Every structure is written in C-alpha cells, then in structure tokens.
Amino acid sequence: MRNNLIISLIFLMVSNQISAQQIASDVIQEQIAKYKNDLRGPYKDIRWFCTDGSVRQPKDPCPDNIGPGNQHARYKDDVEKLAVSNHIFLGQILAYTKTEAFWDAPASHSRLKQYQLDKYLRGVDDGWINRKSQFYRGAIQSEDEEAWGIDFYKWLLAKDDVIQQNYFLVRQSLKDIPHNGDDNLAQLMRSQSKVLSDAYLPFMDLRVKIHAQPEVNDIEKVKTFKAKHVTKLSVNQIKLIDELIITMTTFFKPIDLTAVLQKATLIKDTTFGKAFKVYVSEQHETSKTSDLIQNTAEVLALLKKAVLDEKRPLARLQLLDISLKLEEVIFKNAPLWEPKTVEQLVDKICYLGMATAAAGYIEQHEWEALNLTLSGNTTNDTTLGDLTSVLQNGRSLVEWSSGMVKATYQETVNTYTTFEPLAYGFIDDKIRGSIALHLGKAVGELGDFIANESALTNKVLNIPNQSTIRGLNPGYAFGELVVVAGSPDNIEVSSNKIYIFQRPPADLKPIAGIATVSEGNMVSHVQLLARNLGIPNAALSDQNLADLMTYSGQKVFYAVSNKGNVIIKTEQDMSEEERALFVKKERRNEKIEVPVETIILNQNNVLNLRSVDASDSGKICGPKAANLGQLKKMFPEQVVEGLVIPFGIFRDHMNQEMPDQNKTYWQFLEAMFNEAIAMETKGIAEEEIEHYQLRQLETLRAAIKKMPLKTEFIAQMETDFKTVLGQDLGAIPVFLRSDTNMEDLKEFTGAGLNLTLFNVVDKSKILEGIKDVWASPYTERSFKWRQKYLLNPENVFPSILVIPSVDVDYSGVLITKGLTSGNDQDLTIAFSRGAGGAVDGQSSETYLLKDTGGYQFLAPSRERYYNSLPITGGTLKQSATFEQPILNAENIADIKQLAKTIRESMPNATDTEYEGAYDVELGFKDNKLWLFQIRPFVENKKALSSTYLQSITPIVNTNKAIALSKKI
C-alpha cells in the first residue's frame, strides 16, 4: 500500500534538491516558445547510438560487429538541464530512455505521465514544442519507439504489485505508449475538434457536442457545417475539417472483434480466452445495442480478473489491449442505447458502472461497495427510495472515477500549467474519453426522473444537468458569485461573496456560501465550520462549474435545504420573502459571548495531562487538553501521556514589556480593541475598522513570536518532559496543539482556526513553536471567524496541549451522528492514510455506520500522498495507492465500541447536560486505536430550523411505488 521507506527518502532528497535549484516557470515558458519556432524543436542533433555504448554521426551507422544500434535525436542542453533541475522531461524519446527511469516510481511515475501529457499537448496545439520539428527526419524512429514500448511492458507487466497497485495508470499508458501500432483515435478526434473551434469560433457548438456526447451522426453534422460555411473557411480550416471527418469515420467504424481475437495468440487456451471466443461469436448475432453493452461489460469485468491471474507479461499485454478495445466498443455504442423505461435506465447505469469499474476508474473493493441494481425486487414495481439509492450510488461512481483521474494526473498537470496553461485541459480530456462520460449522462437522466417524482428539484439558474448538484450543509446567502476554475490557494476571499471551487481551500476564511467539485470530506475543518455557521455548501460536477462561469461576477441568491436540494437565482429573480432574509439586523443579536468569568489566570505551572479533565475546560486550559485528559481517565491505554501549558502561562508572558510600544503585550491588545470601539462610535466604516485591527494584530503577532520565554517556564518544561513524557526536551517528537477558550462553545466550534505544529523534536523549535501557537489566534483568518460570531473576540486565551507523536498508519474523524442520514444513533467516520487524516479537507475514506447494523460506503480516499512522522521530526511524504480500503473490519468494530462507550460514559464523566453528538479525532497504529481529541459536534440550529429552509424542503415519500415499466 505504501512505497518502501528507502524509496520515500530518496524521493524526499530528490525533491529537496530540485526545489533548491529549480528553473522558474517564466523561463520554461520562454524556452517552450523558442522550441515551437525551432526547426529542431527540443532536439539538438541526430546520432547513431550503438549497442556497445558508442555514439556515431548520422551518416555513420553502427557496424554489424557491434550490433544494429538506434538512430534518434539528442536533447538540447537546456532540455537536459530542465530534467535535472525541475524533473521536467520535454519531447521524450522512448528509445533514449531506460525503462526503470521512465516508470519513475520514486517520483510517482512522473515521467510516464509527462509523456502522456506531452502527447495531449501536441494534439491540441499543432505539435506543441514540436510544431516545426514534427518532420525533423530521423529525430524519432517509430519502429524503435514501438519496439521499446513492447520491451517496456515486458519489464513492467512482470510485476504483480504494479498491476495490483497501478492498474488504472498502466492501462491508460497503453493508449499513448506505442507497442502495437494502434492510435488513440478518441483523443485525436477531441484534439482536432478543439483545434478547429479555436481556429473558427462558429464550430464551438459542434466541438462541445463531440466532446460531451460523440455519436456517429456527428460525422454528417460536421459535413453539413463544412458545406454551410465553406465560403467563410480558409484553406487550412477546410483541411482541418477534412482531417476531422476522416478521424471520426475511422473511429466510428465497427470494431473487428474477430481480428482482435486472432491477435490474442497467447491467451486463446486460457479460461478467459475461451470465454472471449464465445463472446466474439455471440456478438455477430447480437442486434440489440443494450445486449452488446451488457455482454461487453461482463467480459470486461472477467478480463480485469484475468489480468491479475495471468503471470506472463506479454499475455497480460494482450489482455490489456483487448480491454481497451472492449472499452471502445462500449464508448461508441453507449449513445445508441436509448432506454425507454425506468428498468431499462437502471440497467444501463448498472452495466456502464460495471464497465467503468472494470476499466480501472474505481477500485474493485469500491465497486463491490456500490449497488446499482434493483435486484431485490420481486414485483413489477420499485420504490422512490430504492431508485434514489441507485441514483446516489451512480453519482458516487461518476465522482469517484473522476477522482481517480485527478488523483493520478493532477500533480503533473499542476506542474505543467504553471508554464503551459493548455495542460489544464488534459484531465477533462481523460474523463471525457472514458465510459464514465456516458454513465454520467444516464445518471443525470435518472436524477431528472426522480426529481420530477419527488419534487426534490434543484433550481440552479438555467444550467443543464442540475441533478448532479447536491447540498451538503443547509443555509442561505446573498452575494456576488465567484467561480474559480483553477487552484483556490491564492484566491483572496471575501466574507460577502459566494464561491464555486474545484476543491475547498484548507485555510478558508469566512465566506457567504460555497460549492465545490471535490468536496474533500464532510468532517474536515472547512466543512465543520460551514455547518456550524449555517453557510450553504454543495457539491457539483466539473461541467456544472464550467456552466456557472457565465454567471461569475453576478449577484445571486443561494440556498441549500435541509434535504439537500439547491437553489441559485439572480438578484432580480428573488422573491420578497428571500429579500426579507437579508434586511439589515443588529449584528450583536447574532453573536454569542465567550464566558470568561470562571477563567483562572494565576495557574503558572505546566500541568500533567492526567491532572486535568473536562471540568477544567475554559478555566485553566482549552477543551482539547481538558477533554483529552478526561479521555485519559476513561481510556488510559489509548491516550498518550501529555503536558498542558495553561492560560495563565500565556497571560503571564503577555504582561512583559512589548518592544518599542511603552506598554505590555496585553495592554497593546486592549488598546487596539478600545480604539476599534471608539472608531465604531464615530461611525467609521466597518471595513476600515477591520483593516486597522488586522494591521495591529500583525504587529502583535510578530512581537509574540519574538517574545522572550521566562527562565522558570523553560526549566519546568525540561523537568516535565523527563518525568511525564519519559525523555529529555529535544529527544522526543511532539505535537503542539493550540487550545483556546473560544473553541467548542455551545454554538461555535472554532475547528481548525489556530495552529497545530506537527512532530517537532528539536528543543529550540519546540520553544519557538510555543510562541508561534500563542500568536496563531491573532492571524487574519482566525480573527475574522471570531469577529463574525463572537461578541468578545478580544478575550481569547490560548493554552497548549503537548503530546508525543504517534506515527499512525491512518487517522481521521468520528462523528457520533449520521451526517447524511440525520439519525442521531448512526455514526459518520472519515479516514485518510498517515497523520492528520481527514481534518484538513483531504479526500477521505468515509462511511455511515448504521445503528441497525452494517454500513454504507460513502466515499473512497483519493489522496496520492500522506504524512508519516519520522522520529527525527518533521513530516515525510509517502505515496499511496488505492487498491485496498484504509479501514478493516476490526478497525470499524473498535470505532463502534468506542462510540458506544463515549455515548454512555461521557455525560456522566463530565457531569454535563450535553446530549448532542461528539467530534472525535483518532488514529490506528498496527491496528491499535489511539485517541487524540474529543469535542462537542456543533451544528447551526438556526439554519436547520429556518422557516424559509423548511419551506423549500419538499416532503419526500420514499415508499412511493414506481412502476419499472414507467416511461422516462
């Protein structure tokens, strides 16, 4: 499941070396521009490369006595330098490359992925860096490249672990690496249509059609378009259309399965080979497209297992080539299967889903967790609830398959996008070239049908395919719509705007509303904050995001109901009731007050975690330490030892003189808030007041980071590390977790707003880290969230929880409530590999554990990298694969038992009246459960009970009978 530690260390060293010497993106961009206009492109010259290692001039072939050798180009010096400095490989010549180097396992197979991306860019950009060197004779010899490809797959497919862990990538690579003379016609068709629409804008509508739903009758549409526009087209544009027509005609020719069978000489006597022979024979007699697709999907599923069972590399290669042909059969014929009834539509979804899984777009265990059938039905009817279950699972499969493409290629695409923006289209091209394209359309049709039957309909402006949108958190908002197609990390957000992201940023500042293509996971800090504050939050598709780009910059009303239906409408379309929701109210009535009357600020000693419990929360320390101390009493073997630096030590240090201010740190803070109140009294604009406060806090934060720590405090830390944690300060890696009195209030969670330092070991870094954690509540993000919700944000006091690091295999979050079911007796869990799992918005393995027994698999992990915690400190990036689930049955049983104990014992142990759900952070090391945090799970009661939200939430009768024969 993970790479060898040595490989990871090599990768880390390589990464560090690269990052220290990297060539800037703008310089690479200039290089690429030169290569495009260079008759030799990225190549320097042509040479003969002989078997004995000698290199000869192009007109001086290798003598027979030393072997035939290969002739091909050499890279320009700048190209070779770029490979060393940035690990970027341009214009790769396979015959010039060692197989192991090309597989590039320590760098997550980057070279192979770059080769695929290079091919895509050549297709959409007239040769890209080879624009003028495409016909540089002798630079690349196709027969040598093909021979190299066969040798590469002989080497690669001999490895069982490669097939098991990288099935999707290996199978995709066959579309691009020459090995049998085939071309990737589907990609060529999409590339040619894009080039044509870029050259002649009126072709855009046809391009969209060819990209979204390619069908054989599109050939006639292209011919008609040419006839209609011929007088306006240039000679080159006519040539482009003619080339596209030829490609489309070739692509839509029926696949000669008999020829495929005849080529599969190595597998003809195997179990699969015999089954494939029967399949080929039967397809000649099959006239119904639905039967063809069903039969092909079943054979494709058999083939995937056969690849794993087969051990001969070249036999595996033949199987994988057949797999691609079978996928092509389904891709071409899926639009021709036009279901007329509910039953036929569900069948289509089921078999397209089966084929998607068999093609590697999701893992086998993920496919087995989904149910896309109504097989339990013994009558001619089904229920709306059962159909909705098929819809939800179908949506999941589409999302997970897109997630596989992104997880595999996103890192490479991100690297290339910094110097070649066209690279951004590669992932979309991969998704559109998959069966999941047609699966998504069928799932959308079922969603539309269910929406009509249940009245649970999205009303999102006038964009198509709205059934792929689903609400996550209820709430409503009004503001400017901002659609962000690229990375959100450098976007400066505004608290009165509504954002549509590809993925949620991990350090999100307050916003009015959010929707994301990649939702991360439902228990991340971002999701919990959105849920807590009643911020409407939804998930949508890539296509939905693209369609919403038209509305970016407009003011819209956005609402998510308690059942997850979504409304977005323009300002002029808002009803009076919706306008009334945003009438200016007195802000202070919306806020809560942090209780400070019981806080104890004269506790100046470092505390043993064992000496605190839940009753100390908000008094001498924050809830993290207090509740973990409580858990230490309840689960002594599953909670580490720890130290607590109480509020009093922070307050004592804040009484020191602040440099250059003639006042203490605390007096500086008080003066800032007093001035802000005075400014408000004078009627100064809220934005100006906030700007003043943020500037003052920046000054304070910088000063705290340089604050001298008192000698007696350092001495106590050294003593307590030895007596409580068992080793000297600086000899054991620890976590430093900010733990303020403004977290886990009755109506405010504060999840993830302040700093946690991972796996710090060096003594000086631990002491510096303490000051960094003390300063973190004064960051812009933390302050803005407090300002939005708290009446007295100035009364924030940070304590610090210091606990030894546990290098867990995987970690995550348990919520003792069903977030998707709404059932207080269910459990929601989300886990990612390594440390810090699920809380920072990672794409996590998520389950709903039902109180009636069993569980629902909600989402797989799609995080390619995760953090491990070496004893030397810091974090080490490890590479993950997805063929096995993260949690096992034993882990799930342990989590259920933990939740049962928490529910039964926590209220009594803490002597509180709290009856709600808990948010628990935990991890597993060698299948042993470790507990790291527990806090109340806070939801926004106002959003959940809003009269308006209730009014837009239809009552759905899930028992409503639906005839399977009903027309769709």
From TrEMBL:
What EC number(s) has UniProt assigned to this enzyme?
2.7.9.2
ATP-binding: is it a keyword of this entry?
yes
In Pfam terms, one family for this protein is: PPDK_N
Q: Which domain of life is it from?
A: Bacteria
Cofactor(s) for this UniProt protein:
Mg(2+)
Q: Which UniProt keywords apply?
A: ATP-binding, Kinase, Magnesium, Metal-binding, Nucleotide-binding, Signal, Transferase
Pathway assigned in UniProt: Carbohydrate biosynthesis; gluconeogenesis
The Pyruvate phosphate dikinase AMP/ATP-binding domain, residue ranges: 621-943
Q: Which Gene3D superfamilies match?
A: ATP-grasp fold, A domain, ATP-grasp fold, B domain
Signal peptide segment: 1-20
Q: Does the keyword Kinase apply?
A: yes
Which reaction does this enzyme catalyse, per its entry?
pyruvate + ATP + H2O = phosphoenolpyruvate + AMP + phosphate + 2 H(+)
- What family is it from? Belongs to the PEP-utilizing enzyme family.
Role this protein plays: Catalyzes the phosphorylation of pyruvate to phosphoenolpyruvate.
Q: What is this protein called?
A: Phosphoenolpyruvate synthase
Gene source species: Olleya marilimosa
